[in-house]
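Hey, can you fold this one?
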Amino acid sequence: MTTKGTKRKLTAILSADVEGYSRLMSQDEVGTIRTLTAYRQAMASLIQQYKGRVIDTPVSGRDSQRVHICHWTGDKQGEAWP
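Sure. Predicted structure:
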C-alpha cells in the first residue's frame, strides 16, 4: 500500500577487492594506481547515472600519495639536504 507521491529508495553497499593487489603494486605501482583510479571513476559514473552517490572510498588518494612521496624521496636521494 503506497500513498500517492511516495518515493521508494533502494540503498546498497558495494565493496570490491583487487585480486593480486600486492603483486600488481610490486610490479607497477603507478600503472596499478592509474588503473584502479580509472575503474573507480567508471563505477562512480555508473552509480551517478542511476541517481546514486558514492559516500566513501576508503583508499581514495592514499595510494597515489604514497607513490608521489616515494618518487619525491627517490628524486631527493641524490641531492644534498640543506
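The helical segments are 21-27, 29-49, 62-76. Let me know if you want another pass with a different chain boundary.
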